[in-house]
Write a sequence for this structure.
C-alpha cells in the first residue's frame, strides 16, 4: 500500500519547494523576446528536463499519473515561454515582474 504525502504549508519552508519556486520565477521573469530563434528553440527543448527535476515522482499515485502531470506541466511551461516570446505577457502585466 502506497501512502500519499499530503501538502502542508510548513512544507514550503522545509523542503525543495522554495527552490522550485525560484526556478520557475526566474524562467517567468526572463525576456524571451531578446532570444534569437535558435536559442529560444533550445530553451523550449529543455522544458521536459526542467519539469522532471521539479516534479517529485513519489507524490504521484502511479506511473500513469506521473506522466499525465509531466505532460500538463510541459504544456504549461512551454506556453508560458511562448506567451512571453510573443509579447502576450510582458514586464508590465506579469505577476512575477511585480516587485
Amino acid at each position: 500500500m502506497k501512502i500519499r504525502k499530503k501538502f502542508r504549508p510548513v512544507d514550503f519552508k522545509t523542503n525543495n519547494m522554495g527552490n522550485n519556486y525560484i526556478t520557475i520565477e526566474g524562467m517567468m521573469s526572463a525576456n524571451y523576446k531578446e532570444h534569437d530563434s535558435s536559442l529560444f528553440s533550445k530553451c523550449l527543448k529543455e522544458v521536459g528536463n526542467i519539469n522532471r527535476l521539479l516534479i517529485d515522482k513519489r507524490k504521484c499515485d502511479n506511473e500513469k499519473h506521473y506522466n499525465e502531470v509531466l505532460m500538463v506541466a510541459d504544456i504549461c511551461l512551454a506556453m508560458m515561454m511562448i506567451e512571453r516570446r510573443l509579447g502576450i505577457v510582458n514586464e508590465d502585466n506579469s505577476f512575477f515582474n511585480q516587485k
Observations:
- The helical segments are 11-14, 17-29, 37-45, 47-54, 63-86.
- The chain has a mean pLDDT of 80.
